[in-house]
Every structure is written in C-alpha cells, then in structure tokens.
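Posting for a labmate who doesn't have an account.
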Amino acid sequence: MRKPIIAGNWKMNKTPAEAVALVKGLIPLVADAKCDVVVCPPSVCLPAVAEAIRGTNVKLGAQNVHFAASGAYTGELSAEMLKAVGCEYVIVGHSERRQYFGETDKTVNLRATAAVKAGLTAIICVGELKDERVDGYTNAIVTYQVQMALKGLTAEELDHVVVAYEPVWAIGTGLTATDEQANETIGVVRRAIAAVYGDDAAQKVRIQYGGSMKGANVKGLMAQPEIDGGLIGGASLKAADFAEVVNF
C-alpha cells in the first residue's frame, strides 16, 4: 500500500512570521493524520518554519532547487542548502515555473536528479494545457514529461520521487478534473513509469493530483485507486482548509 502524501504549495505567500503562525495553527489539526504532511513555504520562510515544525509530523519542502551544487546562479538554491535548513522535499517543474520562468523538460530532469542524488524527495510536476487536453494529446504529453523528468534515475532512486499530475487548466481557476479524469491520467503516469522501470517499481511511486484539490472534492479524488494524495495550492494557505484536505 502506498501511503498518501498531501503537500501544501504556498507559492509566493506569507512572511516568516505569517508562515510560523500558519504552521502553529496547523500542527494540532493534523497531528493524527494518516498521510504524510508536507508544507512548502517561500524560501525566506524555510528556517522559521523548520524550527516551528520540529518534533511534529509536518515535514518541510521547498518550491524549487537548482541543479548545480554551487556557482554563479543568482537567486537559486542548491539541494545541500535546502537540506541544511531542514528540507526533506522539494517541488520541481511546477507549471508556473515552466510558464513564467523558462523551465523545460530538460531543466526539470536536471533539478529532479540533483534533488534525488542529494537525498531530497522530489515532487515532480507534470500536466497538460487546456488546448492539449481538448485536442487529445494529454496522454502523450504526460507520458513524455514523466519519462523525461526521470531520465537517468534508477528504480531504487524512485523511492525519492513523488509525481504530481497537475492539469494546467485546473490550477488557480477553480476548475477541477473529474475524479475519473484525474484517476485515468494518473494511471497514464503510472504506466509511463512502468514502461521504463517495470510495474513493481511503478506501483510503489506515489502520484498526487494537483489541480485545485480542496475540502469540497478531496474525498472523491482520494477514493480513486490511482490517486495517492494532493499538491495543494490555495487551500494550503489557511490551517483549517489544509487540515480538511489532510484529514480526508
């Protein structure tokens, strides 16, 4: 059985003080969670949140990682830097990084590889645009993105990989794939992994849904056999809302 994982992507929200207040409100609400709980605050909040969640079941993640260990990469953070402040997870290849900051399938692979090799668990995001779904290319695009992102990793290293399927058309729009659509495409993700690593390895990889999951729809989505959790955006910014998802 794959243990579910619910991760909150706070995006560019919260000062360090606000971040600490949020997690302090969250901790008692998710103390009995049956899933892994991860929060991914902005970089400036990582040290403060790390201290606030110390000794709890809430784990720390970052929103991005660079593929180099060090160097002239202004504004970037290496995997070792993230580990040094307490991160265990890092989001890689979020659609907003692809759309606004020039991420490509190649750089997603480099960043994911750097994270995994350093011992972080990479939450690798894949997903299609609305036009791509309408035109019938969802399966081909998601398969390509998954296999490119994992290129060069071993089956054993997949233990440090979570995949988040995020239909780009459902992020921040209020639109959500139906439970069946999400389950079907996550099944495509799993088959894409199996085609390279075999079914046994693919069955161990946790695959999240990342398109506007919230309290109102979490039960239906999490009842689907292929869905192992969620990468949560807006609903992760209030303790009660995020806890409702975590305690599905």
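Reply:
Got it, the structure tokens are right above this. The chain has a mean pLDDT of 96.
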